[in-house]
Design brief:
The chain has three helices and no strands. By secondary structure, it is an all-alpha fold. The chain folds into two domains: 74 residues; 45 residues.
């Protein structure tokens, strides 16, 4: 990887990590405020559950590139021991191809739904 690409990756990692941390903090603060308001003042925060759900989606999609770039997914390493280095590369390529196919399918179905909504 070239030096400018490496700097860009580090910046993206820092930005996504900061975003994920900020969203997680916001979720915790909102939950604490909602619980205190609900049980102390009998006035829960309106829409706190829905806001927390949306923040969870943002948290997941901000953290996913961080995990993918650094290849830190949860793995079953007993399969790695059975396959060996060559088999691991083949398995990794197969998994990447299946993931790409699912992402394409998801993008295509989303496009069709958006087209139906806006048509």
């Amino acid at each position: 990887m070239t030096a400018p690409a490496q700097r860009g990756k580090r910046r993206a990692d820092a930005l996504l990590g900061l975003a994920a941390s900020a969203i997680l903090l916001a979720m915790m603060v909102l939950t604490v405020i909602d619980v205190v308001a609900r049980y102390v003042f009998s006035r829960p925060v309106r829409g706190a559950f829905e806001i927390t759900e949306l923040m969870l989606v943002i948290l997941i999609f901000a953290g996913l590139p961080l995990v993918s770039f650094s290849d830190e997914h949860a793995v079953m390493d007993f399969i790695d021991r059975i396959l060996g280095p060559r088999g691991q590369r083949g398995l990794q390529r197969t998994v990447q191809a299946v993931n790409a196919a699912f992402m394409f399918l998801l993008a295509w179905l989303t496009w069709l739904k958006a087209d139906r909504i806006w048509a």
